[in-house]
Amino acid sequence: MPRNLEIKAPLADVAGARRVALRLATAHPGLEVQVDKYYRLDARGEERLKHRRSSLHGAMLIHYRRPEAAGVRPSDYQLLDPEGAQARALLADCGEPLLTVRKRREVFLVDNVRVHLDEVEGLGNFLELEAMLDATHDLEACREQVGRLMREFGIEESALLAASYSDLLRAAQQEEPAPHRGLRSSAVPPHHRP
Fold first, then answer.
1. Which whole-number Å values give the CA distances from 131 to 38, 170, 172, 182, in the listed order?
2. pTM metric for this prediction
3. Mean pLDDT in runs of 10 for the chain (194 residues)?
4. Packed helices 14-24 and 139-153: angle between N→C axes, nearest 10 degrees
5. CA 9 → CA 1, 64, 135, 137, 192, distances in Å?
6. Using CA atoms, how far apart are residues 86 and 98, in angstroms rounded to an integer?
7. pLDDT score of 28
8. Alpha-carbon distance 91 to 151, whole Å?
9. CA gap 34, 18 in Å, rounded
10. What are φ and ψ of residue 59, in 5° steps?
11. What pLDDT, on a 0 to 100 scale, did the predictor assign at position 44?
12. Which residue, 53, 75, 52, is CA-closest to 64?
């Protein structure tokens, strides 16, 4: 499986982050609207599956393993054709999706690092960095890149989130009284709110 190192953090100043991303970017693929249906494949939640519909890339199935821990964390992933035999077999074992996450994502590339400025429905704004390991970027090089970009964006290690958007959204929905469910400004724990 391909691997990346990634972080996620709440983002208070989207315009400022966008200026930083534009200054550093080696490419700017643009805006993307994504709708992700999440499935859990193991009891600990470290192995997951999401069915993504993207305004830029169409439909895909993303199978990934990632520890749900704060900080810079590795993620092993596989992109699957949703109509392929392996994808159909995985989906058949999953049952109904746990939940659906909708987001607007602006994508920038800084060398082999994908920079995402995400606006997630019901949660708010986030910065994600995904450093892709490849023949010229090993684990240590990717860790250094992520650290440098965190400094450029002013992101402190203490602000990094452990949870996926699906976990954050589920937690937000469980916190709210049923009649008031809907959009929230943030489902980030109070000590991580900007």
1. 22, 27, 28, 33
2. 0.82
3. 92 98 97 92 73 92 79 83 77 82 98 98 97 94 97 96 89 65 41 41
4. 130
5. 25, 20, 28, 23, 8
6. 20
7. 96
8. 39
9. 19
10. -95, 145
11. 61
12. 75
| Residue 151 region by backbone torsions, left for phi larger than 0, else alpha for psi between -120 and 50, else beta | alpha
CA distance 165 to 121: 10
Sign for the CA dihedral angle at 22, 28, 34, 39 comes to negative
Of 104, 78, 77, 107, nearest to 165 (Cα)?
A: 104
Cross-strand partners of 103: 34, 120
**Superfamily of domain 3-188, CATH level 4:** Hypothetical Protein Pfu-838710-001 (2.40.320.10)
Query: DSSP string covering the chain, please?
Result: --EEEEEEEE-S-HHHHHHHHHHH-SEEEEEEEEEEEEEE-STTS-EEEEEEEETTTEEEEEEEE----SSSEEEEEEEE-TTSHHHHHHHHHH-S-SEEEEEEEEEEEETTEEEEEEEETTTEEEEEEEEEPBTTB-HHHHHHHHHHHHHHHT--GGG---S-HHHHHHHHHHHS-GGG-S--S--S-GGG--
Residue at token pair 């993303």 = 62
Euclidean distance between CA atoms 132 and 134, whole angstroms: 6
